[in-house]
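Let us work through a complete example step by step.
Step 1: write down the sequence.
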Amino acid sequence: MDVNDNELVFLNQPFHALVSTVSPRSHVVTEVQAVDADSGEFGSVRYELVRGSGELFAVNKKTGEISLKQTLMAADKTYSLTVAAYDGGKPPLSSQAHVLIRVVSSEGPMFTAARYEAAVPENAAKGTPVVRVEAASPSGEPIMYTIVAGNTEVLFGLDYSTGGGTMSDSSKAFSGSGSPCPEHTSISDDTCHVDLRVTPPLKSH
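Step 2: predict the structure and record it as tokens.
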């Protein structure tokens, strides 16, 4: 006998997205996805926006796509949404996820993601590639990248033309507990966050 005993799990959290002030109505901003290990009807998933700006955003019940109900005019504003996923049980089991959506101006460059994540070994050598951020300019002008916060010990470097991030001084790196190192990267009037997770040292062969 099939039992509805597995809770839904959202994938790829946290959810962060960017949307331009010129994005039209029905534009898909981002998508959330939850899975249920149960089979049959118990394993089906539907989505619902349960908190936050329902007059501006809609959630597709079947796909989890979050789209615009209208064009957003105010740049540099962040909206916080809570999306629930329900399975097919009676009563259904559910899980919730938070989604942050930031509105950016259409005139300046825009990162392809609001948040980037990477892992780096605690014994990574100087010059080791860590992460690459990427942005696009509506005007087609060249883009220059810079780290504006979170790099107080100058552990990381960022190629100003490619957005490629590397270790810049491994001798000072990760002398503590190996906690995450947030890095705040900026171009012109747009910013993104880079979360770096420290992993155990690589073993030499």
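Step 3: interpret the result. The chain is about 0% helix and 45% strand.
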